[in-house]
Amino acid sequence: MIKSISDTALLQNGLRMPWLGLGVYKAEEGQEVIDAIKHAVAAGYRSIDTASFYKNEEGVGEAVKQVDVPREELFITTKVWNSEQGYEETLRSFKESLEKLDMDYVDLFLVHWPVSGKYKETWKALESLYKEGKTKAIGVCNFKIHHLEDLMKDCEIKPMVNQVEYHPRLTQKDLLAFCKDQGIQVEAWRPLLKGEIFDEPILTALAEKHNKTVAQVILRWDLQNGVITIPKSVNENRIKENADIFDFELSMEDMEQIDSLNKDLRNGPDPDEF
């Protein structure tokens, strides 16, 4: 059982990654993202998830300098965007990200989307960055089973993480089972579905039962499904609230009730069409 914010998932290469992180998509570059990270670190978070596409890597780097936790105790993720994919382009994009973050390495570097005809070359670039020690782990985002199978036919190093849209309306059971079988850690983006399911009766009843908020119940469900979760917020109280999920446990019946909300409904783009 995951009992503390300092608990970590073990990636296939032996690296440990926090179960809970802060997503900073749409957090504004500058003071907003810096403050959000400071609030998160003060609340015990050690994992920050950014991307070149978010245009706030400089703020993330600045926040890491300002917090009173050493860089090596933090877990920093960034990603290569679609227009930057391809072998040389990815190496260039990574170099730019590292410069903006003002870091010597990142903990996790991800392919943001499976760009058709490009992602294999992009992956080769990630493999070489990994071998050089510029990133401690490599992975993908938004890869369906067929993308992973295609990539793994030719890759030298298997993806260590697959970050996907994951919430009670999109439970992706087949993908979860496939990744588990392959030793690929699943990570959830948009776990709270932008609050759109906060009035769902099953969730409100479970929140009442456990004396928690609906958001806390959903995030706990993520963890108990073995899924790393990175809720996004810039609000100090919500950042703290999202981290207050380690003092209760959902029963098997609770978990099944949440699973029953699945509608295979995407809030973001379909990776096959994006």
Q: What value does the Rg take, in angstroms?
A: 18 Å
Q: Give me the CATH architecture, please.
A: Alpha-Beta Barrel
Pattern of helices and strands: EEEHEHEHEHEHEHEHHEHH
Low-confidence stretches: none
The pLDDT mean sits at 97
The beta-strand count equals 10
Instruction: State the CATH superfamily name.
Output: NADP-dependent oxidoreductase domain
Major sheet size, sense and barrel closure? 8 strands, parallel
Backbone structural class: alpha/beta
Number of domains: 1
Distance between the termini: 36 Å
Query: What is the fold named in CATH at topology level?
Result: TIM Barrel
Helix content: 25-40%
| Lateral arrangement of strands in the main beta sheet | 3-4-5-6-7-8-9-10
Q: In percent, how much strand structure appears in the residues?
A: 5-15%
Tell me what the structure shows.
The longest helix is centred in the middle third of the chain and has 15 residues, at 87-101. 46% of the residues are buried. This protein has a single domain (8-259), classed as NADP-dependent oxidoreductase domain (TIM Barrel), CATH 3.20.20.100. The termini are far apart. The chain has helices at residues 31-42, 57-66, 87-101, 119-131, 145-154, 173-182, 201-210, 214-224, 236-243, 252-259; strands at residues 8-10, 16-18, 22-23, 47-49, 75-80, 108-111, 138-141, 161-165, 185-189, 228-229. The chain is globular, with a radius of gyration of 18 Å. By secondary structure, it is α/β, with parallel strands linked by helices. The chain contains ten helices and ten strands. Helices cover 39% and strands 14% of the residues. Helix 2 runs parallel beside helix 3 (87-101) and helix 3 (87-101) crosses helix 4 (119-131). Pfam families: Aldo_ket_red. Residues 28-262 form the NADP-dependent oxidoreductase domain. Substrate binds at residue 112. The record marks 79 as: Lowers pKa of active site Tyr. Keywords: NADP, Oxidoreductase.
